[in-house]
Design a protein that fits this description.
about 150 residues, alpha+beta, six-stranded mixed sheet, elongated
Length: about 150
């Protein structure tokens, strides 16, 4: 994340919270497909809007919501809410880039290699999955089998 992105996320975090906000509707307005694409009312959502909404996405009790200061909207997720497409090692752990071109800095302990793939724990209860290219890059460059 750039400094500007970090400031934006921090600003958004001040105004979003998990409790005290009423659910607007029982209807699911947003869907996140397994390939990382977002739909709004079953129509493709432009990436710039999906990127913006991803900053207010939360997972609470296994359900996904977009939460603002005044409303909460349900989101249906096919497999994982975020798809990670690139990885770089840094001094503090790893920096992953999502299919929405957002960056996540995580410690080594946030990454789990499981039978169903490599999963990365993020903030707000979210768990992301690596796409095929990122998966193989992570395995080839950063895992040791000694």
């Amino acid at each position: 994340m750039t400094d500007s992105d970090t400031e934006t996320v921090s600003s958004i975090a001040q105004f979003t919270h998990q409790s005290g906000v009423k659910l607007c509707s029982e209807d699911v307005l947003f869907r996140i497909l397994s390939d990382g694409r977002w739909l709004y009312l079953d129509s493709p959502l432009p990436t710039k809007f999906a990127r913006m909404f991803s900053h207010i996405l939360h997972c609470i009790g296994g359900e996904y919501f977009l939460i603002t200061p005044v409303e909460k909207v349900k989101v249906a997720v096919e497999s994982w809410p975020l798809l990670l497409v690139d990885v770089e090692k840094n001094d503090d752990g790893f920096c992953f880039t999502s299919s929405l071109d957002t960056r996540f800095h995580v410690a080594d302990t946030a990454i789990e290699v499981k039978e169903k793939g490599i999963l990365v724990s993020l903030n707000k209860g979210l768990i992301a999955s690596l796409n095929r290219a990122c998966y193989y890059r992570y395995i080839n460059e950063y895992l040791s089998f000694d």
